[in-house]
Design brief:
With 750 residues, this protein is an alpha+beta fold. The chain contains 22 helices and 24 strands. It has a seven-stranded mixed sheet with strand order 5-4-3-6-9-8-7. The protein has a five-stranded antiparallel sheet with strand order 12-22-23-13-24. The chain has a four-stranded antiparallel sheet with strand order 15-20-16-19. A hairpin with a 4-residue loop joins strand 4 (193-197) and strand 5 (202-205). It is globular.
Length: 750
């Protein structure tokens, strides 16, 4: 009989009554509970509870009974207010509001203009209750009014964060951008279009066509972002079109192979014709994954809207993960956090990284009033200006117009071509290393961003100098012979020399770690390091830039703050002890997968932005010797890219030398910003020389700040020897595979 009663109890529990999804969220927030706390109590994932609160999924036994019991007790403590009034038009349904600004690490504050969305970036904590709002019937609202969704609709909408309090602008105090920098446009089963904004705000979208959507965005939506620099420009509003929105507005859900290769839909497409009839224009890139629709500016007033189309691969999965597959409200959160901390996306992360440089250092500014009281556009000091400059011949990549006179199949050597690239070096393990048990990889956080910090780079054109005296403060490219630098004896401090085993170290002067054999072109940081190691240098010639400055400092600061603030939201703070840091990094992505996407995008913005400084031809019928489109940009600056990579590689080598001099340990492999050491334990703490919690001065230090290191992965020494033997490659770069140990093919260095 007891078994029968148990089955009956289980049947009753399987139908435990639950309140509507919006009420579930209100009750949780009213008691100050986070999604993580509820998930832990019910032994489910955070995303599962989020799905219950959004109405995407319903709890099933045995969790359903426990969830119903929790909500029932919370309903006794926080009954719904029967006298709640309808929200004002143009506001979000006010579920909860934050009682304090979102915490940001004090040591690395988020810039002021990034603060408005701070609450959008943290877990729901320190909340106060608000009465639940009564729904506004759809028929009661004007078709063009920017109203909140009805409660019934809200119960079906994807899981969102806290809705913005009524009357609170999503973008801070600027009323022009009260609803934030961007919106995700989605269409429900009834054909109603909605704009999902940051802060949980959802707007009705009355537009029935793309031209009408653009017009609504500029006239009513109040989307956009204030400029990042005084002489700069406000960011244009960004609309993200979901697949249902594409269908509504007559656009293909996916591009054909031909359209994908072209990067746009055909000029004769009906939507492009609609835009032309409405006197809207497209940029030269056409109507593609990141389309820009505009009318010529009238005075200082801009009329431009940018579209992002995830199903056309606008959000590259290498950098944005599964962001393109997220529900609309969650995608708005991810892009909103990125926009508030970095900038409104202007295209790929690489394009945005480059645009961020320009946004922080606009090429022109307004002059002082002239005799007639008029202001004129003038060069903005510290910027790259509005006109491109030619690079030095040694800095030009193959195929550049400066090299048009070279023989067709000529291969330039080190004495003709500046080749500053990241490390890709490995060596066979010694007998002593083979007796150890593990290979431990450490990775430098935001290595290339750290390389840009404080770096003096050229702002103008280069000047050619014969037989110059080397000046470490003068950015440029130097032809000099560094083959005499002997790593077996180097300077590691003032009047302090160290004897090392040079055969176990990569050369700091070449990406493959090979010792140079004669004169070669180097960026200033590389030559300066040779001097630092205690050796004289005698340049043969140089291309130097007398107009220079710390152009990338603001860019570094903004990206650093974005990275640190987002990692802090994920539970990894900048002031953790080494052991606590390693523990906090373990599984940090699973704590909030959406914020983890933002971290990946910020990192990709750094690397991609620097890569764009030397963008190569991208089809378009280009032939060697002819100019390509990127050369017309002031930000096409291969010398700046080379200087950052040079400094990043040198920073890493300096730490490797300090570590070797102090511990006698040498790296087995180095790949870009990852270094692998043999050790007896599985943790970086098993070989990093910490003393009383303090690292070796000038060596590797565990931490989340750019330039510090984290644990990349650990494999066994036997694994390393086995894969090298399997591929008959004694110098296979194990740093490439140290993270998960998977080796799919022989390392080609590509």
């Amino acid at each position: 009989m007891s078994e029968l009663f148990d089955r009956i109890d289980a049947l009753v529990a399987s139908r435990s009554p639950l309140p509507p999804p919006v009420e579930r969220k209100r009750l949780r927030a009213a008691h100050g509970l986070t999604l993580d706390e509820v998930a832990a109590a019910l032994d489910v994932r955070r995303a599962t509870v989020s799905g219950w609160e959004s109405g995407k999924t319903e709890p099933r036994p045995p969790e359903r009974e426990g969830y119903a019991r929790l909500l029932g007790k919370l309903a006794e403590l926080y009954p719904a207010d029967p006298n709640a009034t309808a929200p004002v038009e143009g506001t979000a349904v006010p579920e909860t509001f934050s009682s304090a600004p979102a915490p940001v690490p004090q040591a690395q504050p988020v810039p002021t203009d990034a603060a408005p969305e701070a609450a959008a970036m943290t877990t729901e904590q320190n909340t106060q209750t608000r009465p639940a709002a009564t729904a506004v019937p759809p028929a009661a609202a004007s078709p063009s009014a920017r109203t909140a969704r009805t409660t019934a609709s809200a119960s079906r909408r994807p899981g969102t964060r806290k809705a913005a309090p009524a009357g609170t602008p999503a973008s801070g105090t600027d009323p022009r951008f009260a609803n934030g920098p961007l919106a995700v446009i989605d269409v429900d089963a009834d054909g109603q279009a909605y704009a999902y904004c940051v802060g949980g705000l959802v707007l009705d979208v009355p537009a029935k066509s793309i031209p009408a959507l653009v017009d609504w965005t500029l006239r009513e939506a109040k989307l956009g972002q204030p400029k990042l620099s005084g002489p700069g420009k406000d960011a244009d509003p960004l609309l993200v079109l979901t697949e249902s929105a594409l269908e509504r507005y007559g656009l293909p859900v996916a591009l054909t192979d031909e359209e994908r290769l072209a990067g746009r839909i055909p000029e004769g497409h009906k939507v492009i014709k609609q835009l032309a009839r409405a006197e809207w224009k497209l940029t030269k890139r056409g109507f593609g994954p990141w389309a820009r629709i505009y009318r010529p500016a009238q005075g200082s007033k801009r009329a431009c809207v940018q579209l992002c189309i995830p199903s056309w691969n606008a959000l590259d999965t290498r950098h944005w993960g599964e962001a393109g597959q997220l529900p609309s409200a969650e995608l708005a959160r991810v892009l909103g956090v990125y926009a508030s901390r970095v900038m409104t996306p202007r295209g790929s992360t690489a394009v945005t990284g480059l645009e961020l440089m320009t946004a922080l250092h606009p090429p022109t500014r307004a002059s002082e009033p002239d005799a007639d009281g008029k202001r004129h556009s003038e060069h903005n000091p510290g910027s790259l200006g509005k006109d491109p400059v030619d690079c030095a011949p040694c800095e030009a990549p193959d195929g550049h117009p400066l090299l048009a006179d070279l023989p067709r199949f000529h291969v330039r050597g080190p004495a003709e071509k500046l080749f500053e690239e990241a490390y890709d070096w490995a060596r066979p393990m010694t007998d002593a290393e083979c007796t150890l048990r593990h290979l431990v990889g450490i990775d430098v956080n935001m290595a290339f961003a750290a390389g840009a910090n404080g770096l003096v780079v050229g702002l103008g054109a280069p000047t050619h100098v014969k037989a110059p005296v080397f000046d470490a403060k003068l950015p440029g490219s130097w032809l000099v012979d560094l083959s005499h630098v002997d790593l077996s004896r180097v300077k590691v401090g003032k009047d302090k020399w160290a004897d090392l085993d040079a055969s176990l170290l990569p050369s700091p002067f070449t990406p493959k770690g090979e010792r140079p054999e004669g004169p070669a072109w180097y960026a200033t940081p590389t030559v300066a390091y040779a001097v630092e190691l205690g050796y004289d240098v005698v340049p043969i010639e140089a291309y130097v830039r007398y107009e220079n400055g710390r152009y990338l400092d603001g860019w570094y600061n903004r990206l650093r703050d974005a990275f640190l603030a987002t990692m802090a939201d994920l539970g990894v703070d900048a002031d953790l002890s080494p052991a606590d840091f390693l523990a906090a990094m373990d599984g940090y992505r699973s704590r909030d997968p959406e914020l983890a996407i933002v971290v990946s995008a910020v990192k990709a913005t750094v690397k991609g932005g620097l890569g764009k400084l030397r963008e190569r031809p991208r089809g378009e019928g280009w032939r060697p010797g002819e100019p390509w489109r990127a050369l017309s940009r002031p930000t096409w600056r291969p010398d700046i890219r080379a200087a950052v990579i040079s400094r990043t590689r040198i920073n890493l080598h300096r730490k490797i030398v300090k570590h070797a001099a102090f511990t006698g340990q040498y790296p087995v492999a180095v790949l870009s910003d990852c270094v692998v050491y043999a050790a007896n334990g599985t943790s970086p703490l098993d070989f990093l020389p910490y003393r009383d919690g303090k690292p070796l001065p000038g060596g590797f230090k565990l931490g989340i700040n750019p330039g510090l290191v984290k644990h990349e992965g650990t494999q066994s020494v036997l694994w390393g020897e086995e894969v090298r033997e399997r591929f008959d490659a004694p110098e296979l770069n194990l740093a490439r595979y140290i993270k998960d140990g998977t080796v799919t093919d022989q390392d080609t260095g590509e």
